[in-house]
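Worked problem 6 (solution included).
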Amino acid sequence: MASINDDAYESIGLVKPEVYVYVIPPRQSTTRKHRAADWKLDTPNYICRLKIISKGEKCLIRLEDRNTGGHFATCPIESYPSIAVENVEDSTRYFVIRVQNDNGQQAFLGIGFNDRSDSFDFNVALQDHFKYLKQAKQIEQEAQQTASNPSQSQQPKLDLSFKEGQTIKINLKSSLPGDEQTKKSVRNANESFVPGILPPPPGSSIPKLTPPPGSSLPKLTPPPSSTSANVVPQLSTTAVAATSPSPPNNNNNNTNVHSDLSWMQF
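Solution. The predicted structure is:
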């Protein structure tokens, strides 16, 4: 396993193809930060490509020619935030970096990004590098403590798993007191639903259609043929008695017609 001090390879954490570089005036006071408003922001001195390179525990900001890739300047960073990389007082897109050559000579340059998202990525890349170094050192220290004290590694760890037969109860009921009645009414309305016919909303009534003003409902009369064929007039017994012809009045009390033969001629 390679150590964090192994500098056999380089990893690039960030690449920005266009960064503005300014030659800035010296700081007026040690207690005051640099101000981007004091620079000639409209006319940068250089336009370079920026890379953040991690090499073991080292972190470098390398400025290169954006066309040829030639080396322009390098800013070694030992910690962040530090004097190697400083924020300006009046903007979040501009920084002051301390560049250094192979002879140890140092100079301060101003750099600026065209967009705030680029400056945000610049900050995050530097923070991630030093966060990784901190975590790696913690892991290395724990490994050394375990190697020097084997009994510490044999201590039982906290067991949070479920035992055999152990159960838990989760109540997912989150309805309010009045929700049950509402659910019942909705369920009853759905049960009485007929496909193709939408049920009326709760609490509403079917409106009654009234004819327009000045109009009257038509009266339906049956056809004459149906009246004579199907309707049979029912007469009362008194009417039958009044209309039926009365029998002839016979003064003879004998009801047999053959008892009186005087009308016959022999």
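Discussion: The longest helix spans residues 116-148.
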